[in-house]
Write a structure and sequence with these properties.
Distance between the termini: 37 Å
Number of strands: 0
Radius of gyration: 16 Å
Order of helices and strands: HHHHHHHH
Largest sheet: none
């Protein structure tokens, strides 16, 4: 973990971002959620929004905080990824989970329907979205 901490602080930009993601994952696995969230938030703040790693950071942060009763804040964070991102399907899945937590099932179902029209959606993601649609 020490090596990732060093790289996360002092590495070249691309490596630094990857090290921050890995460090956050290690911290989460060790039960240090607050520290992991701080690392990811810092990574997001330091990464240009056009960088795909910014979107990865957003998705990671949202997945870490799904159970933190911050649904609206997390939905707002996901909006740019939903609108124009390489990871729209994952952002849709996370958004649907958050919307269902707030009993906004109609919005959740609309998001699922829109995502299911994407011909590039993987079979696995299609199955996961269908499972969310049916409430599994």
């Amino acid at each position: 973990m020490k090596g990732f901490e060093e790289l996360a602080q002092n590495g070249k930009t691309g490596y630094q971002k990857l090290a921050q993601l890995e460090l956050a994952d290690i911290l989460m696995n060790q039960g240090e959620k607050e520290k992991a969230v701080q690392v990811i938030q810092q990574m997001i703040e330091q990464t240009d929004k056009s960088d795909p790693l910014h979107q990865v950071g957003v998705l990671t942060l949202v997945s870490y905080q799904l159970e933190d009763n911050k649904e609206q804040e997390l939905l707002n964070l996901l909006q740019p990824v939903l609108q124009d991102g390489q990871f729209q399907a994952l952002a849709t899945e996370l958004s649907v989970i958050l919307l269902k937590k707030t009993n906004e099932t109609q919005k959740a179902d609309e998001l699922i329907q829109k995502a299911l029209t994407n011909t590039q959606l993987t079979p696995n993601m299609r199955a996961r979205l269908n499972a969310l649609k049916s409430g599994e």
